[in-house]
Amino acid sequence: MTTALVALVAVLLDAWLGEPRRAHPLVAFGRAVRALEARLHGDRRISGVIAWSLAVLPLTLLTALVMNAAHDRSPSFAAALSAAVLYLAIGHRSLHDHARPVADALAAGRLDDARAAVGRMVSRDTGALDASQVAAAATESVLENGNDAVFAALFWFALLGAPGAVLYRLANTLDAMWGYRTPRYERFGWAAARLDDVLNWVPARLTAMTYALLGQTARALRCWRLQAPLWDSPNAGPVMAAGAGAIGTRLGGAAPYHGVWEERPTLGEGAPADEDSVRRALALVRGGVTLWVVLGLLVAGARAVA
Protein backbone atom coordinates (compact mmCIF):
# COMPACT_ATOMS: atom_id res chain seq x y z
CA MET A 1 0.00 0.00 0.00
CA THR A 2 2.88 2.35 0.80
CA THR A 3 4.30 2.10 -2.72
CA ALA A 4 0.94 2.88 -4.32
CA LEU A 5 0.29 5.81 -1.99
CA VAL A 6 3.77 7.20 -2.60
CA ALA A 7 3.18 7.00 -6.36
CA LEU A 8 -0.12 8.85 -5.94
CA VAL A 9 1.56 11.59 -3.90
CA ALA A 10 4.35 11.93 -6.49
CA VAL A 11 1.86 12.20 -9.36
CA LEU A 12 -0.12 14.84 -7.45
CA LEU A 13 3.06 16.78 -6.68
CA ASP A 14 3.97 16.71 -10.35
CA ALA A 15 0.50 17.93 -11.34
CA TRP A 16 0.67 20.72 -8.75
CA LEU A 17 4.27 21.88 -9.05
CA GLY A 18 5.49 20.67 -12.42
CA GLU A 19 9.22 20.37 -12.95
CA PRO A 20 11.41 22.52 -10.69
CA ARG A 21 12.24 25.75 -12.52
CA ARG A 22 15.62 25.97 -10.86
CA ALA A 23 18.18 23.46 -9.68
CA HIS A 24 16.56 20.35 -11.16
CA PRO A 25 18.79 17.39 -10.24
CA LEU A 26 18.71 16.12 -13.84
CA VAL A 27 20.11 19.44 -15.06
CA ALA A 28 23.00 19.11 -12.61
CA PHE A 29 23.42 15.50 -13.70
CA GLY A 30 23.60 16.61 -17.34
CA ARG A 31 26.37 19.09 -16.56
CA ALA A 32 28.34 16.45 -14.68
CA VAL A 33 27.86 13.99 -17.52
CA ARG A 34 29.19 16.47 -20.08
CA ALA A 35 32.32 16.90 -17.95
CA LEU A 36 32.63 13.11 -17.65
CA GLU A 37 32.23 12.71 -21.40
CA ALA A 38 34.96 15.27 -22.05
CA ARG A 39 37.37 13.15 -20.00
CA LEU A 40 36.35 9.65 -21.07
CA HIS A 41 35.05 9.96 -24.63
CA GLY A 42 36.65 7.56 -27.06
CA ASP A 43 35.67 5.81 -30.26
CA ARG A 44 35.26 2.51 -28.42
CA ARG A 45 32.29 0.82 -26.82
CA ILE A 46 34.22 0.13 -23.62
CA SER A 47 34.68 3.89 -23.13
CA GLY A 48 30.92 4.32 -23.20
CA VAL A 49 30.38 1.39 -20.84
CA ILE A 50 32.80 2.87 -18.31
CA ALA A 51 31.29 6.36 -18.63
CA TRP A 52 27.74 5.00 -18.24
CA SER A 53 28.71 2.98 -15.18
CA LEU A 54 30.42 5.93 -13.49
CA ALA A 55 27.47 8.22 -14.22
CA VAL A 56 24.62 5.91 -13.17
CA LEU A 57 25.71 3.24 -10.71
CA PRO A 58 27.18 5.39 -7.89
CA LEU A 59 24.08 7.61 -7.74
CA THR A 60 21.78 4.59 -7.79
CA LEU A 61 23.75 2.96 -4.97
CA LEU A 62 23.77 6.22 -3.01
CA THR A 63 19.98 6.43 -3.35
CA ALA A 64 19.63 2.88 -2.05
CA LEU A 65 21.86 3.61 0.95
CA VAL A 66 20.02 6.83 1.77
CA MET A 67 16.64 5.14 1.49
CA ASN A 68 17.73 2.28 3.78
CA ALA A 69 19.01 4.76 6.35
CA ALA A 70 15.80 6.80 6.09
CA HIS A 71 13.66 3.70 6.58
CA ASP A 72 15.66 2.74 9.68
CA ARG A 73 15.04 6.21 11.05
CA SER A 74 11.35 6.44 10.17
CA PRO A 75 9.22 4.59 7.60
CA SER A 76 7.10 7.73 7.21
CA PHE A 77 10.18 9.82 6.46
CA ALA A 78 11.36 7.20 3.97
CA ALA A 79 7.96 7.29 2.23
CA ALA A 80 8.09 11.09 1.99
CA LEU A 81 11.61 10.93 0.59
CA SER A 82 10.54 8.29 -1.94
CA ALA A 83 7.66 10.51 -3.06
CA ALA A 84 10.12 13.39 -3.60
CA VAL A 85 12.45 11.19 -5.63
CA LEU A 86 9.64 9.86 -7.82
CA TYR A 87 8.25 13.37 -8.29
CA LEU A 88 11.63 14.45 -9.66
CA ALA A 89 11.79 11.37 -11.91
CA ILE A 90 8.48 11.86 -13.71
CA GLY A 91 7.52 14.61 -16.14
CA HIS A 92 3.79 14.23 -16.75
CA ARG A 93 2.89 17.90 -16.35
CA SER A 94 5.93 18.87 -18.41
CA LEU A 95 4.41 17.01 -21.37
CA HIS A 96 1.31 19.17 -21.10
CA ASP A 97 3.30 22.36 -20.57
CA HIS A 98 5.27 21.72 -23.77
CA ALA A 99 2.54 20.27 -25.98
CA ARG A 100 -0.40 22.54 -25.19
CA PRO A 101 1.27 25.64 -26.72
CA VAL A 102 1.76 23.69 -29.96
CA ALA A 103 -1.92 22.76 -30.14
CA ASP A 104 -3.03 26.27 -29.16
CA ALA A 105 -0.82 27.90 -31.79
CA LEU A 106 -2.02 25.52 -34.50
CA ALA A 107 -5.64 26.14 -33.56
CA ALA A 108 -5.04 29.89 -33.88
CA GLY A 109 -3.28 29.53 -37.22
CA ARG A 110 0.09 30.71 -35.85
CA LEU A 111 2.32 28.23 -37.66
CA ASP A 112 5.61 29.95 -36.79
CA ASP A 113 4.72 29.91 -33.09
CA ALA A 114 3.74 26.24 -33.36
CA ARG A 115 7.06 25.44 -35.05
CA ALA A 116 8.96 27.23 -32.29
CA ALA A 117 7.00 25.42 -29.58
CA VAL A 118 7.44 21.97 -31.10
CA GLY A 119 11.14 22.72 -31.55
CA ARG A 120 11.40 22.58 -27.76
CA MET A 121 10.03 19.03 -27.84
CA VAL A 122 11.78 17.30 -30.76
CA SER A 123 15.20 17.19 -32.41
CA ARG A 124 14.04 17.45 -36.03
CA ASP A 125 14.29 20.62 -38.15
CA THR A 126 10.96 22.24 -37.35
CA GLY A 127 11.33 25.24 -39.67
CA ALA A 128 10.54 23.06 -42.69
CA LEU A 129 7.37 21.50 -41.25
CA ASP A 130 3.84 22.30 -42.35
CA ALA A 131 0.95 22.43 -39.87
CA SER A 132 0.14 18.72 -40.05
CA GLN A 133 3.81 17.76 -39.67
CA VAL A 134 4.12 20.04 -36.64
CA ALA A 135 1.08 18.37 -35.09
CA ALA A 136 2.49 14.93 -35.90
CA ALA A 137 5.84 15.78 -34.31
CA ALA A 138 4.16 16.99 -31.12
CA THR A 139 1.83 13.98 -31.00
CA GLU A 140 4.71 11.54 -31.49
CA SER A 141 6.65 13.27 -28.72
CA VAL A 142 3.73 13.12 -26.29
CA LEU A 143 3.11 9.43 -26.95
CA GLU A 144 6.77 8.40 -26.75
CA ASN A 145 7.55 10.53 -23.71
CA GLY A 146 4.43 9.26 -22.02
CA ASN A 147 6.47 6.09 -21.69
CA ASP A 148 9.94 7.59 -21.24
CA ALA A 149 9.05 10.36 -18.79
CA VAL A 150 6.10 8.85 -16.93
CA PHE A 151 5.13 5.19 -17.21
CA ALA A 152 8.62 3.68 -17.25
CA ALA A 153 9.61 5.67 -14.16
CA LEU A 154 6.44 4.49 -12.39
CA PHE A 155 7.19 0.89 -13.43
CA TRP A 156 10.74 0.91 -12.08
CA PHE A 157 9.61 2.63 -8.90
CA ALA A 158 6.98 -0.06 -8.36
CA LEU A 159 9.61 -2.73 -8.96
CA LEU A 160 12.65 -1.37 -7.10
CA GLY A 161 11.49 1.70 -5.20
CA ALA A 162 13.31 5.02 -5.35
CA PRO A 163 16.62 3.44 -6.51
CA GLY A 164 14.76 1.90 -9.46
CA ALA A 165 13.31 5.27 -10.46
CA VAL A 166 16.74 6.89 -10.22
CA LEU A 167 18.41 4.08 -12.20
CA TYR A 168 15.85 4.38 -14.98
CA ARG A 169 15.75 8.18 -15.16
CA LEU A 170 19.53 8.55 -15.27
CA ALA A 171 19.84 5.82 -17.91
CA ASN A 172 17.12 7.44 -20.00
CA THR A 173 18.85 10.83 -19.72
CA LEU A 174 22.11 9.32 -20.93
CA ASP A 175 20.32 7.76 -23.88
CA ALA A 176 18.98 11.23 -24.77
CA MET A 177 22.51 12.64 -24.57
CA TRP A 178 24.64 9.82 -26.01
CA GLY A 179 22.29 7.45 -27.81
CA TYR A 180 22.68 8.94 -31.29
CA ARG A 181 23.98 7.15 -34.36
CA THR A 182 26.45 9.88 -35.25
CA PRO A 183 30.21 9.54 -35.76
CA ARG A 184 30.83 10.84 -32.23
CA TYR A 185 28.36 8.55 -30.48
CA GLU A 186 28.10 5.49 -32.73
CA ARG A 187 30.40 3.52 -30.43
CA PHE A 188 30.67 5.66 -27.31
CA GLY A 189 26.87 5.88 -27.00
CA TRP A 190 26.24 2.20 -27.75
CA ALA A 191 25.94 1.21 -24.08
CA ALA A 192 23.62 4.12 -23.25
CA ALA A 193 21.30 3.24 -26.14
CA ARG A 194 21.24 -0.51 -25.53
CA LEU A 195 20.78 -0.28 -21.76
CA ASP A 196 17.93 2.17 -22.23
CA ASP A 197 16.36 -0.32 -24.63
CA VAL A 198 16.62 -3.04 -21.99
CA LEU A 199 15.18 -0.90 -19.19
CA ASN A 200 12.33 0.27 -21.41
CA TRP A 201 11.37 -3.07 -22.98
CA VAL A 202 8.69 -4.08 -20.47
CA PRO A 203 7.41 -0.56 -19.63
CA ALA A 204 7.05 0.30 -23.33
CA ARG A 205 4.79 -2.67 -23.93
CA LEU A 206 2.75 -1.93 -20.83
CA THR A 207 2.41 1.64 -22.09
CA ALA A 208 1.33 0.44 -25.53
CA MET A 209 -1.27 -1.83 -23.92
CA THR A 210 -2.47 1.06 -21.76
CA TYR A 211 -2.92 3.25 -24.85
CA ALA A 212 -4.78 0.44 -26.60
CA LEU A 213 -7.15 -0.17 -23.68
CA LEU A 214 -8.00 3.52 -23.31
CA GLY A 215 -8.46 4.27 -27.02
CA GLN A 216 -9.64 2.47 -30.14
CA THR A 217 -8.46 -0.90 -28.92
CA ALA A 218 -8.74 -3.08 -32.03
CA ARG A 219 -7.10 -0.47 -34.25
CA ALA A 220 -4.35 0.17 -31.71
CA LEU A 221 -3.52 -3.52 -31.39
CA ARG A 222 -3.50 -3.93 -35.18
CA CYS A 223 -1.16 -0.98 -35.66
CA TRP A 224 1.10 -2.28 -32.90
CA ARG A 225 1.29 -5.73 -34.49
CA LEU A 226 1.82 -4.60 -38.08
CA GLN A 227 3.69 -1.30 -37.83
CA ALA A 228 5.85 -1.46 -34.71
CA PRO A 229 8.31 -4.01 -36.18
CA LEU A 230 9.03 -1.57 -39.03
CA TRP A 231 10.17 1.20 -36.68
CA ASP A 232 13.88 1.51 -35.91
CA SER A 233 13.39 1.61 -32.14
CA PRO A 234 12.22 -1.61 -30.46
CA ASN A 235 10.37 0.38 -27.78
CA ALA A 236 9.23 3.59 -29.46
CA GLY A 237 7.65 1.53 -32.24
CA PRO A 238 5.06 -0.27 -30.07
CA VAL A 239 4.35 2.84 -28.02
CA MET A 240 3.78 5.20 -30.94
CA ALA A 241 2.05 2.68 -33.20
CA ALA A 242 -0.41 1.69 -30.49
CA GLY A 243 -0.87 5.30 -29.43
CA ALA A 244 -1.49 6.54 -32.96
CA GLY A 245 -3.96 3.73 -33.55
CA ALA A 246 -5.68 4.42 -30.24
CA ILE A 247 -6.39 8.05 -31.11
CA GLY A 248 -7.15 7.33 -34.78
CA THR A 249 -4.49 9.46 -36.42
CA ARG A 250 -1.63 8.92 -38.86
CA LEU A 251 1.93 9.64 -37.72
CA GLY A 252 5.41 8.80 -38.95
CA GLY A 253 6.35 9.53 -42.53
CA ALA A 254 9.16 11.75 -43.78
CA ALA A 255 10.83 14.11 -41.28
CA PRO A 256 13.84 16.45 -41.61
CA TYR A 257 16.93 15.86 -39.49
CA HIS A 258 20.08 17.95 -39.87
CA GLY A 259 18.91 19.28 -43.23
CA VAL A 260 18.05 15.85 -44.68
CA TRP A 261 14.55 14.44 -45.04
CA GLU A 262 14.44 10.89 -43.70
CA GLU A 263 11.72 8.46 -44.74
CA ARG A 264 10.08 6.72 -41.79
CA PRO A 265 7.31 4.10 -41.69
CA THR A 266 3.73 5.19 -41.21
CA LEU A 267 2.28 4.76 -37.74
CA GLY A 268 -1.40 4.59 -36.90
CA GLU A 269 -4.43 4.91 -39.13
CA GLY A 270 -6.91 7.66 -39.90
CA ALA A 271 -6.69 11.34 -40.72
CA PRO A 272 -3.41 13.28 -40.75
CA ALA A 273 -2.40 14.81 -37.43
CA ASP A 274 -3.79 18.19 -36.38
CA GLU A 275 -4.05 20.17 -33.14
CA ASP A 276 -6.77 17.82 -31.90
CA SER A 277 -4.38 14.87 -32.27
CA VAL A 278 -2.02 16.54 -29.81
CA ARG A 279 -4.84 17.04 -27.32
CA ARG A 280 -6.07 13.45 -27.70
CA ALA A 281 -2.54 12.16 -27.10
CA LEU A 282 -2.29 14.24 -23.92
CA ALA A 283 -5.65 12.90 -22.77
CA LEU A 284 -4.47 9.35 -23.48
CA VAL A 285 -1.38 9.77 -21.30
CA ARG A 286 -3.42 11.46 -18.58
CA GLY A 287 -5.95 8.63 -18.59
CA GLY A 288 -3.12 6.09 -18.47
CA VAL A 289 -1.56 7.71 -15.40
CA THR A 290 -4.93 7.67 -13.66
CA LEU A 291 -5.44 4.02 -14.59
CA TRP A 292 -2.01 2.97 -13.32
CA VAL A 293 -2.39 4.77 -9.99
CA VAL A 294 -5.92 3.46 -9.41
CA LEU A 295 -4.90 -0.11 -10.29
CA GLY A 296 -1.90 0.19 -7.99
CA LEU A 297 -4.10 1.30 -5.11
CA LEU A 298 -6.65 -1.46 -5.78
CA VAL A 299 -3.99 -4.18 -5.95
CA ALA A 300 -2.30 -2.87 -2.82
CA GLY A 301 -5.63 -2.68 -1.00
CA ALA A 302 -6.56 -6.23 -2.01
CA ARG A 303 -3.20 -7.52 -0.81
CA ALA A 304 -3.57 -5.67 2.48
CA VAL A 305 -7.02 -7.18 3.01
CA ALA A 306 -5.79 -10.66 2.11
Automatic annotation (TrEMBL):
Taxonomic superkingdom: Bacteria
Location relative to the cell: Cell membrane
Record flagged with keyword Membrane: yes
Record field: transmembrane: 49-70, 149-171, 283-305
Membrane topology: Multi-pass membrane protein
Pathway in which this enzyme or protein is active: Cofactor biosynthesis; adenosylcobalamin biosynthesis
UniProt KW keywords: Cell membrane, Cobalamin biosynthesis, Membrane, Transmembrane, Transmembrane helix
Pfam families noted in UniProt: CobD_Cbib
PANTHER family xref list: COBALAMIN BIOSYNTHESIS PROTEIN CBIB
Function recorded in the entry: Converts cobyric acid to cobinamide by the addition of aminopropanol on the F carboxylic group.
NCBIfam families assigned to the protein according to its UniProt record, in alphabetical order: cobal_cbiB
Family the UniProt entry places it in: Belongs to the CobD/CbiB family.
Name of the protein in its database record: Cobalamin biosynthesis protein CobD
Native source organism of the sequence: Lysobacter korlensis
Gene name of this polypeptide: cbiB
